[in-house]
Design goal:
heterodimer, A: alpha/beta, nine-stranded mixed β-sheet, four-stranded antiparallel β-sheet, globular, B: alpha/beta, two-stranded antiparallel sheet, 10 helices, 7 strands
């Protein structure tokens, strides 16, 4: 008999929060499912812990240096040209492709997974998630565009609306989640799938703008809706295929309350590591004399002589530059004297794979509340904006059948292996 | 038939069709420009005599000008007005400074409306929301055939539009109807000008500032603007749109991508 799998992504849901919501009775549906034989694990996200990198590690089971995605933004080789990596830049096969090639699972439903835009061919249906722009490029095959539009499909809520109308934005999140549930259920009930991978991204949006209210009724109400999404989707799958299918839930990173944004480039500038030419744009501002620069969120790149047109740091100087950067950044503190950065990791401890050279030289891990930023616009090291939450890396969520155990902390690269093993 | 006649006809068709389907219907009026335009269209649809109540949700924090405008217009246009207030929460001191802003909105707006709907057992509510409320960005919010191409043949698919307008506010038994969904901000101002509709003068520039949208005093801030007349607002809205669309030499997808990333705090 053909094996089946249902995988639900819950973008940005931390282990600590989901277990708390379950304990407090706001996620009765999920608790019921877990009682039937699933356990909740605290999972490590990718480095850096942002959606495009983490979800790509999820869908490929690969390290960023193997799949080539290191952030929402990157620079083209040998230049300062900014580009936005997308699905075309993913260099490793996805588990949907792998299973299809092995003949183990045929039709796949892939709904709203970040960094799947533009939609790429799969045996089944793929609807791209964040940052999908043009709906006609967000759906494969094209024959699904009209039916999805008729069902009122929404790629994402209007993220700018939150600045003018926070209440309306919240209502949009509720609506968007409801539509996503309706469409997921319709697709599961009306069509045959060997595996369905469906992602809820409204949770990440909620957390970015409302995480300071995580103990409020509004937040709990939203989690009840997420719970209904999970339970209803699970139960329809169960009704159709019986109890014997692989079921996983995962998030791509955790969240915590934001205290301040920390603009690493402003700091690097102040300490003499970075000089900019303000007459140019974006990362082309980086000028001769620059030793290092940052990109979102805590990626530090050394201005290598052979890697950048205006770079001058020689291979023999790299070790010493890294030491100076670490010393300076680890001592960075806010006005109250609280240290911003908890840990700085060298690329060799994180990354391995054919795209190792493109990886950032250092990854900064901040203390909770200090949201590291890599923009070149903000002049002050510490700033605040509308955001109430920030990503965390070591407390993503993974829910797997009880039989699956880990002898170390689970990572975002594990689910793909679990899925492939199950079908093999 | 010119553009504004067409916009008007679409709206009036939806208004009459909704009234025909749900006799127990009402309209939510914020007294702002959009819902006042909708109110005018409803008035036109029923030849000056609005056959159902108009609801104003009063948070008690609105601008004084808004209360004056509300009371004057309800007399001048002679329609039944229902004022909804969450008295219980107001008595407990709920406000943007005492509670969290979102809870304040939820209690004083959403729940006040729920109370009214429960009390009067309304089956449907007209709302003055626009698909283009946030300029070019709003096009990304919904993707539907009628929105994309404006070739939405509602006459031939009445069942479908009602499905698509189904309420999301709660799972209760009422529908939300959006007759001016197809108007843009610019359309609204041009239509207000053409029909000579009254508006609150908070929209007009005084000392270099004006309100682009109005609501509760503590949660509204004016924009920098010299537009002191509707003509000048039309000019301002039209040109600000152009500059937003012109962008840089980069391709459009990159601009959108950057906007979306910035909206989440990246870049």
């Amino acid at each position: 008999m053909q094996k089946k799998a249902l995988i639900i992504g819950i973008d940005g849901v931390p282990f600590g929060l989901i277990t708390q919501m379950m304990e407090q009775g706001y996620m009765k549906g999920l608790t019921g499912i877990c009682n039937e034989g699933y356990s909740v694990h605290k999972m490590r996200a990718s480095y850096p812990d942002i959606s495009s990198v983490s979800w790509t590690s999820f869908m490929t089971g690969a390290n960023p240096a193997e799949h080539g995605i290191f952030g929402f933004t990157d620079l083209k080789p040998n230049s300062y040209d900014l580009y936005f990596p997308n699905s075309r830049d993913i260099k490793a096969p996805t588990f949907w492709q792998t299973l299809h090639e092995k003949g183990k699972a045929k039709r796949a439903l892939v709904l709203n997974i970040p960094n799947t835009y533009p939609a790429f061919p799969i045996d089944g249906l793929l609807v791209s998630g964040f940052v999908a722009i043009d709906f006609t490029k967000a759906v494969y095959p094209l024959s699904y565009i009209a039916p999805l539009q008729r069902m009122g499909y929404i790629i994402d809520v209007d993220l700018m609306k939150v600045r003018d109308d926070k209440d309306g934005f919240y209502q949009d999140l509720v609506e968007s989640l409801a539509i996503r549930e309706k469409i997921s259920m319709t697709l599961i009930n009306d069509e045959e799938w060997d595996m369905a991978t469906i992602c809820v991204t409204e949770t990440d949006r909620l957390h970015h703008f409302f995480f300071d209210k995580k103990d409020s009724v509004v937040f709990q109400d939203f989690y009840k809706r997420v719970d209904a999404f999970i339970a209803n989707t699970y139960r329809s799958f169960e009704k159709k295929y019986g109890k014997d299918f692989l079921f996983l839930i995962l998030s791509d990173h955790g969240f915590t309350e934001q205290i301040s944004e920390v603009n690493l480039n402003a700091c690097l500038k102040e300490k003499g590591f970075l000089t900019t030419n303000e007459s140019r744009e974006y990362y082309d501002k980086i000028d001769t004399g620059t030793i290092a620069f940052a990109m979102d969120p805590g990626r530090i790149y050394i201005h290598h002589e052979k890697k950048y047109p205006r770079g001058h740091v020689k291979p023999s100087e790299v070790g010493q530059v890294k030491d100076r950067l670490k010393e300076m950044l680890l001592n960075l503190a806010d006005g109250k004297g609280t240290k911003v950065i908890k840990e700085i990791l060298d690329k060799e401890t994180i990354y391995r794979g054919p795209y190792y050279e493109s990886a950032p030289d250092l990854i900064c891990i901040s203390n909770d509340g200090y949201d590291l930023k890599g923009n070149l616009r903000k002049k002050d090291i510490f700033s605040t904006d509308i955001f109430k939450g920030m990503h965390t890396g070591d407390d993503a969520t993974l829910i797997v059948p009880q039989g699956i155990t880990f002898d170390r902390q689970a990572t975002i690269e594990d689910p793909a292996k679990i899925i492939i093993d199950y079908f093999s | 038939m010119d553009h504004y006649d067409m916009l008007e006809n679409k709206s009036i068709y939806i208004i009459r069709e909704a009234y025909y389907r749900f006799k127990n219907i009402a309209m939510l009026w914020s007294v702002g420009k959009d819902s006042t335009t909708l109110l005018w269209l409803i008035r036109k649809a029923f030849f000056g005599k609005i056959p159902f109540p108009i609801i104003h949700i009063d948070t008690s924090y609105k601008f004084p000008e808004m209360y004056e405008f509300r009371d004057k217009l309800s007399r001048d246009w002679d329609f039944p007005l229902i004022v909804g207030r969450n008295e219980e929460k107001l008595a407990n001191g709920m406000g943007p400074s005492t509670g969290m802003k979102l809870e304040c909105c939820t209690e004083l707006k959403t729940n006040a409306l729920k109370q009214i709907i429960d009390k009067y057992k309304f089956k449907a509510i007209f709302l003055g929301i626009r698909r283009d409320e946030h300029g070019i960005r709003a096009k990304e919010r919904y993707f539907s055939p009628r929105d994309d191409q404006f070739q939405w043949n509602y006459e031939n698919q009445p069942a479908e539009i009602w499905d698509q307008y189904k309420s999301f506010l709660d799972k209760e038994e009422h529908y939300r109807v959006h007759p001016i969904l197809h108007f843009t901000e610019l359309d609204i101002w041009k239509y207000i000008q053409r029909e000579k509709l009254p508006i609150i003068d908070l929209y007009l520039s005084k000392e270099g500032k004006r309100y682009r949208s109005i609501g509760c005093v503590p949660c509204c801030s004016p924009i920098d603007s010299q537009a002191a007349t509707i003509d000048q607002i039309i000019e301002e809205v039209a040109t600000s749109k152009t500059s937003e669309r012109a962008g840089r030499a980069q391709d459009k997808e990159n601009i959108y991508t950057m906007q979306k990333l910035r909206a989440l705090g990246y870049m």
